[in-house]
Write a structure and sequence with these properties.
The protein has 309 residues and is mainly alpha-helical. It has one domain: MFS general substrate transporter like domains (Growth Hormone, Chain: A), CATH 1.20.1250.20. The chain has ten helices and no strands. It is globular and about 60 Å long.
């Protein structure tokens, strides 16, 4: 937290009778190797979600459903892109406030578990909803559920990254994060393997090319979904299994008696103060603008990339 954020917390603590604690004073003083590896399991699980659900399952499913409704491939592509943009815009707008709330509450692990649970539930719900009904019903239900799941995926990533000061001591944080990132490839590999197994069991879906002009000839009556719809339910189950060790890791929590109402009040105050500081500091502003556009470009690549054979 910045000095002004700590001052705001102190003012609120004085009002509520809570103990005034500098959040930096309770950060992790040691790095438990086994505890860190338990923590890493969520990184692998959400990478699995990114690879299987975002890249290999949702995009082709939504595009095929749109074509089956009678939409052109180009129009369907635009609609899917708009919903992806909406999901990312929501996390960009609400993420800072959500992060501030979890910081003040002093419980980032709980925040990860909550949003991850919603992510898993909404992902699993896609399979039954696209198994019955008209193509239009299937398309809108799959898209709405995906927006919810992707929002929670992005939020979970944010809360997870915010845990590092309370998992590893200062001088080992960079190495710990780098090691976690290097191990997250396991999620990508398992995502591809899951896709291959389900396609072998339930059939190969109609191929979707990343080049818009290459798909205009696809006819609604020729569309086959194969194992696409099962990737969501099976994927959700695998995510739960992969992330299970995460439940048993421990993070340093900030003792706080702040009520939910006061938490929201302080979060808004910190958000405004921090926002003004960023706007006044040229380097901070450039950093956040760069981060936003680079991350957005990466998310776009993840959404539309396909397996090339």
């Amino acid at each position: 937290m910045a000095d002004k954020d700590i001052y705001a917390y102190a003012q609120l603590a004085k009002k509520t009778g809570d103990e005034i604690i500098d959040p930096t004073s309770i950060e992790a003083k040691r790095t438990g190797k086994f505890n860190v590896f338990l923590w890493f399991s969520y990184d692998a699980a959400d990478t699995y979600f990114s690879q299987l659900i975002i890249s290999l399952a949702f995009t082709p499913l939504a595009l095929l459903l749109g074509i089956q409704m009678g939409w052109s491939y180009t129009f369907t592509f635009v609609i899917v892109s708009l919903f992806m943009a909406l999901s990312n815009l929501l996390i960009a707008a609400l993420g800072p406030i959500m992060g501030s709330i979890s910081d003040i509450a002093g419980k980032r692990k709980g925040a990860v578990i909550i949003v991850a649970s919603i992510m898993v539930a909404s992902t699993a719900a896609v399979t039954p909803f696209v198994s019955f009904g008209s193509p239009m019903f299937k398309f809108w239900m799959a898209t709405i559920l995906f927006v919810i799941a992707n929002f929670c995926y992005q939020a979970g990533r944010m809360f997870y990254d915010a845990q590092i000061p309370f998992i590893a001591k200062t001088e080992q944080r960079s190495f710990t994060q780098a090691l976690g990132g290097s191990l997250s490839f396991i999620g990508s590999v398992l995502g591809v393997v899951t896709s291959m197994v389900l396609v072998a069991l339930f059939g190969k879906p109609t191929h979707i090319d990343t080049a818009i002009w290459a798909n205009e000839s696809i006819k609604p009556e020729d569309i086959e979904y194969g194992g696409l719809q099962w990737m969501f339910l099976i994927g959700a189950i695998v995510i739960v299994i992969m992330a299970l060790p995460y439940l048993f890791h421990k993070e340093v929590e900030t003792p706080s008696k702040v009520t939910l109402k006061d938490n929201f009040k302080q979060s808004r105050q910190i958000f405004r103060t921090t926002g003004k500081e960023i706007l006044r500091d040229r380097n901070s502003l450039l950093f956040f603008l760069g981060w936003f556009f680079i991350t957005d470009a990466a998310n776009t690549a993840i959404l539309y990339m396909t397996v090339t054979i």
